[in-house]
Amino acid sequence: MPVNQKAHKGLVFLSLFAACLWISCAKDIEYDDIEVNVAGPTAIAHFGDEFFYVLNSDFDQRYDTGSILVLDRDGAKIGSVNTPRLGTSLKVAGNVMIATYSSDVKKDAMVEVYSLDADPKAPKLEKSFPLKDSQPVNIALVEDYDFFAVTCSNGDLYIGQLNDDRSKSTLKLVRKYKYPRRAIYIDKTREMLFAFPTMDYGVSITRDERFEDLKTYITDEPTNFPNGIPDRYEINAEQRNFIAQRFRYQFVVYDIEAARTAKFPLKENEDVLSEMRFLYFNLKDKAGKADYPEDSDTKKKFYRTNFWAAIPDPTVTDDSAFLLSHRDPYAKDLKKGNDVIQVKIKGPASILKPSGDPLLPPMLDTYFEFTRKYGFTPEQPAKPFPAAIVAQKVGGKDVLLVNHFNNLNVTKEGAKFSLAQKDFGSTHARYELEGQPPNISYYEMAMMSDGRTLAGSFFGHMVLLFDVDPSTNITEAKVTEIK
Predict the structure, then answer these.
(1) Residues of the chain whose pLDDT is less than 70?
(2) Are the CB atoms for 187 and 319 separated by under 8 Å?
(3) Coil, strand or helix: which one is 121?
(4) CB 220 within 8 A of CB 237
(5) Are 80 and 63 in contact (CB under 8 A)?
(6) Rounded to two decimals, what is the model's pTM?
(7) How far apart, in Å, are the Cα atoms of 154 and each of 10, 130, 144, 305, 388?
(8) pLDDT at 290
(9) Does residue 227 contact residue 216 with C-beta atoms inside 8 Å?
(10) Following DSSP, what letter does each residue of 414-480 receive, concatenated?
(11) Which residue, 209, 255, 253, is CA-closest to 232?
């Protein structure tokens, strides 16, 4: 079903924020200035190996605003910039910073563009974009590329263009996709944007499923070859017209180059069905064996959903691959359904570009190849639910950090937050820092090139500084709490 306004409130901490909105309605209440305090950090970024930035949401309204807190690499607080409350995402690329904020009863949702050119210790706000009908959940921002993307909980996609004069940057609503896609990646070489479905913010209502794909139904009389679309979704005219049931298993291919030529027109979901592709793949264990016996059933494809983050793959030197974190709390085997996956892009860009009949999309294996990079059974924690991921070369090795959380409700029995470390060259990893909710509820993190890492504790109102060393266990790291 299309995501409605009620469903939006469950996305990206919005359900958590909703509990505090009544406070915003109060009259004549004076709040302290946030200054350099940490208050509900939702996102963390870094500038080279010099500075960290913390987006403080102040979700429980301890202060009069939110902030972007600036720390040096040793965790010393340098200063802060006051921002709207309820920050949701923060990205830095080169000398540009972009932050997003959810709405409350006093203000619209917001996207802000900051410049770090003059002084990275003091981000300068250059442009603000209010969003009247959307709640932003994530940003795709790439260094040395003029365009960025913002995805929203109702499926809206915004494309921004950075001007040399940052104050003249623009942001346009270009798509109304009707389904949330938090995991977004910009391939600047091919000028394509990929956005993957997300309906799991600690309270999942979707899961991976196996469906038959033996035929192609242009009409009720099928042809005897598969087309990547589950037969059950196209067996008759009623099913073919019920497109909303497909969204949870579809990722988006958005052609930035073509859209730029057309001046980024706004299009409705129903007008761009060829941009939506079904997502299906099987994975193998460390020995190269199939995860499940059912993987050998050629009549069925394993359709996937619930992707949290998409980031560049440090093991490649071009845009030929990226990494995706994937969550399935209903998996037949939890340790086989929660992974970090390498997506390798194959073939020419022409295969990727949306065109033609949406009932005859190019087969997925002609342009994408999926390989598990993290999530092999020996390296999985007891409750593996990958969310935020960062990957970085540290000491000549490609290191991956994975945030796990199984439920954003920290009062729920069994709620767990952790950070796991893996060196891509190792046979497996079981190095994990475990949080004790609600005090240490690991969430987003940022890692510098020498392994210096800052992680946020959303409910604990703190950030945690430590070093990642590929030669040692992450549990041996000295963790410094900063409040």
Answers:
(1) 1-28, 200-204, 407-415, 426-431, 437-438
(2) yes
(3) coil
(4) yes
(5) no
(6) 0.92
(7) 11, 16, 29, 16, 21
(8) 94
(9) yes
(10) T--EEEEEEETTSS---EEEEP-TTT--EEEEEE-TTSEEEEEETTTTEEEEEE--TTS-GGGSPPE
(11) 209
